[in-house]
Design goal:
The chain has 20 helices and seven strands. The protein is mainly alpha-helical. It folds into three domains: 118 residues, no CATH class; 155 residues, Helicase, Ruva Protein, domain 3 (Orthogonal Bundle), CATH 1.10.8.350; 66 residues, Muramoyl-pentapeptide Carboxypeptidase, domain 1, CATH 1.10.101. The strands form two sheets. Strands 4-6-7-3-5 form a five-stranded antiparallel beta sheet. A two-stranded antiparallel sheet has the order 1-2. α6 crosses α16 and α8 runs parallel beside α13.
C-alpha cells in the first residue's frame, strides 16, 4: 500500500523548510556590512565603482578600502563570458561526469587519503564528515591544489557585482571580502582565485571564509592557499556547520521499474524512502531499498533513458558548495569511488542515446510551455525545477513518459500542439 498523501505532505513540508535553512546559510552574512540592499550594478564600471564606494562607506569601511582598494579595482571582461558559459548549463550529464570523475581523480585522491590519514582521522572525529567527501571536493575544485585560479578575486567579484544578473549576491561577497582585508585575515596580494571569486585549495567564497575559516595547523593564521591543513579543516567545519549528517550518505544510483508511475511523484520534492520502495524502485543490483527512515528525492539527469538517482539530505548540503545537481552528483560519485565503489553503473552498462539540447532550444521550449499555460518562469535556457515541473505536466497531459526531461518527444509534441492550436484559431482579419 502506498504512503498516505498526508504523510507525504508532512514530509515535504518538513524537508522543504530544512532545505531552505541549509541553502540560506550559503548566502553572505554581511559581518561588517549590514546595510540596506541597494544594487550597485551599472553598465558604466566607473559609476558602479562610485556606487560601491557609497555602499562601503555606509557599511563603515575605512578610507583604505573605499579609496585604495576600490580605487585599484578594474573590470575583467572575460569573467562575464565565463559566467554565461558554465559547464553545468552547457554539458550533458554524461559529459560533465566523465570530465570530472576520472581515473586520475580517483588515483590521486586515494593517494591523498593515505598521505593525510592522521589529519582525516581527527577531522572525522571532530566534525563528522567522512574523509572521502573532503578529498572529492578537493579534487573537483582544484585538482588537489593544482589549479587554484590566477584571477584577481577583487576584480572578478567587482565585475560580477557590476553586472545586473547576480549583482547583489556578488556585491555582498565583495563587501565580506573587504571585511577580511580590513581585519587582516587576508592580504590583497593573496587574493587570487577563480573567475567567480572562489579562493584556495577548496575554492571558498569570501563569506564562507569569513564565517567558517579554521587555523588547522595552529600557526596563528588561516591560509587556504598554501596550507592544505587549513583548507581541509575549514571545509570540514563548513560542512559540519551547514548540517552534514554524519551517518548518512549523499544518495544512491537506483533502478526504476518498467512503466514507473511518474504521475505519483513530483520532481525536486522529497518523500519517505519507503514511498519509493512501494513504487517498485530498487538498488542497481535489483535488491530492495532499505527501510531506513530518510527523505529522498528522485532525480533523472538525462530523463528516463539515462541513470536514475535517489538524493538524500546530505545532497543539499553538497549543493551549498555549488548550486548544480551535476556538480553535487560528481562529488558523491567520486567520493564513492575513492572508497572502492565501482562508480556509475549505468555508464558502465550502456550509453544514453539522449541527444543534448542547446540553451537556445531550452529557451524556446520554455517560451512555448509558458504560452500553453505550463509555467516555467522567465526563459533562461536552464533546465531547473520550474522547467522540470512544467515539462512533466506537459508530458502527462499529452500521454508522454512524465520524466520532466526535454527529450525529442517533448520538442516534437509541443511543436505539433502549437501548430494544431494555430490551425483551429480563427483569423479575425479575414
Amino acid at each position: 500500500m502506498l504512503a498516505s498523501n498526508q504523510l507525504i505532505k508532512q514530509s515535504l513540508n518538513f524537508f522543504n523548510v530544512r532545505k531552505l535553512i541549509i541553502l540560506c546559510s550559503f548566502f553572505p552574512i554581511m559581518a561588517n556590512a549590514t546595510t540596506a540592499s541597494t544594487t550597485i550594478a551599472d553598465q558604466d564600471f566607473l559609476k558602479c565603482k562610485i556606487n560601491l564606494v557609497e555602499r562601503a562607506n555606509k557599511a563603515g569601511f575605512s578610507s583604505y578600502i573605499t579609496q585604495t582598494v576600490i580605487g585599484n579595482i578594474s573590470p575583467i571582461e572575460r569573467v562575464i563570458a565565463l559566467d554565461k558559459k558554465q559547464p553545468e548549463f552547457t554539458q550533458t550529464f554524461e559529459q560533465y561526469i566523465k570530465a570530472r570523475v576520472t581515473d586520475y581523480h580517483v588515483r590521486v585522491g586515494k593517494q591523498k587519503l593515505k598521505q593525510n590519514e592522521k589529519l582525516f582521522d581527527s577531522l572525522e572525529d571532530k566534525y563528522g564528515v567522512p574523509r572521502q567527501y573532503l578529498v572529492s571536493f578537493w579534487g573537483l575544485e582544484t585538482v588537489f591544489g593544482k589549479h587554484k585560479g590566477k584571477m584577481s578575486v577583487l576584480n572578478s567579484l567587482a565585475t560580477l557585482a557590476c553586472d545586473e544578473r547576480r549583482s547583489e549576491f556578488f556585491t555582498l561577497e565583495l563587501l565580506n571580502l573587504f571585511t577580511l582585508i580590513e581585519s587582516k585575515k587576508v592580504s590583497v596580494e593573496q587574493l587570487q582565485g577563480s573567475w567567480a571569486g572562489a579562493m584556495g585549495h577548496m575554492q571558498f567564497m569570501p563569506t564562507a571564509f569569513l564565517k567558517y575559516a579554521i587555523d588547522g595547523d595552529n600557526d596563528g593564521k588561516v591560509d587556504i592557499w598554501k596550507s592544505e591543513v587549513d583548507a581541509l579543516t575549514t571545509a570540514a567545519n563548513y560542512l559540519n556547520r551547514i548540517d552534514w549528517q554524519a551517518k548518512e550518505r549523499w544518495g544512491r544510483e537506483i533502478k526504476l521499474p518498467e512503466n514507473f508511475a511518474f504521475d505519483k511523484i513530483v520532481f525536486d520534492q522529497y518523500y519517505p524512502l519507503s514511498y519509493f520502495k512501494e513504487l517498485g524502485v530498487k538498488k542497481t543490483n535489483n535488491q530492495s531499498l532499505s527501510s531506513y527512515d530518510i527523505q529522498a528525492e528522485l532525480y533523472l539527469p538525462s530523463g528516463h533513458k539515462g541513470p536514475a538517482f535517489l538524493l538524500y539530505p546530505n545532497f543539499n548540503v553538497i549543493m551549498t558548495w555549488n548550486l548544480s545537481k551535476s556538480y553535487a552528483l560528481s562529488v558523491g560519485l567520486l567520493a564513492n569511488k575513492l572508497v572502492g565503489a565501482k562508480g556509475l553503473e549505468f555508464l558502465q552498462q550502456e550509453q544514453t542515446k539522449i541527444k543534448p539540447y542547446s540553451v537556445t532550444q531550452m529557451k524556446n521550449l520554455q517560451s512555448q510551455l509558458n504560452a500553453l499555460g505550463f509555467e516555467t518562469g522567465e526563459p533562461d535556457g536552464i533546465w531547473g525545477p520550474k522547467s522540470r515541473d512544467a515539462i512533466r505536466s506537459f508530458q502527462l497531459k499529452y500521454q508522454l513518459i512524465g520524466d520532466g526531461y526535454p527529450n525529442k518527444e517533448v520538442f516534437s509534441t509541443i511543436t505539433f500542439v502549437q501548430s494544431k492550436n494555430k490551425a483551429i484559431t480563427p483569423n479575425i482579419n479575414q
